[in-house]
């Protein structure tokens, strides 16, 4: 069975990932763009799942920052799709760090 990006699916879709495009919070007078794709879903005991992600923000103001984080569990958004909330801080570089928070792009599955 092939699942397309716009398909509605009941349950959890094994192996799916999420992407996001966001900006960090302001620190030391600047922001960084954060382009992210998560690792595949990790099941949780309650029947939902989370995603692990790691990477770095786009080079800005002469430096970059790295991050490692887990998402919230799945948040159903209707039509057989879900999103995840993320909230984390980057590494400290150049004497500061940045806060990143938001919601990733919807993916198939309502759990």
Cα gyration radius (Å):
15 Å
Q: Hey, roughly how much beta strand do the residues contain?
A: 35-45%
Computed structural class: mainly beta
- Mean pLDDT, all residues: 94
CA(first)-CA(last) distance: 19 Å
Count of the domains = 1
Tertiary shape: elongated
Please give the largest β-sheet. Answer: 3 strands, antiparallel
Please provide the ordered H/E string of secondary-structure elements. EEEEEEEEEEE
Protein name: YmaF family protein
Pfam family, one: YmaF
InterPro entries: YmaF
What does the model show?
This protein is mainly β. It has one domain (19-108). The protein has no helices and 11 strands. The chain has strands at 19-23, 33-37, 42-43, 49-50, 52-56, 66-70, 75-78, 81-83, 85-89, 99-103, 107-108. It has a 3-stranded antiparallel sheet with strand order 7-8-11, with no helix packed on it. Strand 3 and strand 4 (49-50) form a beta hairpin. 24% of the residues are buried.
Features:
single chain, 111 residues, mainly beta, 3-stranded antiparallel β-sheet, two-stranded antiparallel ribbon, 11 strands, 0% helix
What's the short story on this structure?
This protein has 111 residues and is mostly beta strands. The chain has one domain.
């Amino acid at each position: 069975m092939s699942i397309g990006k716009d398909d509605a699916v009941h349950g959890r879709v094994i192996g799916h990932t999420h992407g996001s495009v966001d900006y960090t919070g302001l620190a030391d007078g600047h922001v960084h763009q954060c382009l992210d794709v998560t690792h595949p879903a990790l099941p949780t005991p309650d029947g939902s799942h989370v995603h692990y992600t790691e990477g770095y923000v786009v080079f800005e103001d002469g430096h970059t920052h790295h991050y490692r984080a887990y998402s919230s569990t799945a948040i159903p958004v209707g039509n057989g799709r879900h999103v995840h909330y993320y909230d984390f801080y980057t590494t400290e570089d150049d004497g500061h760090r940045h806060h990143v928070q938001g919601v990733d792009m919807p993916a198939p599955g309502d759990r």
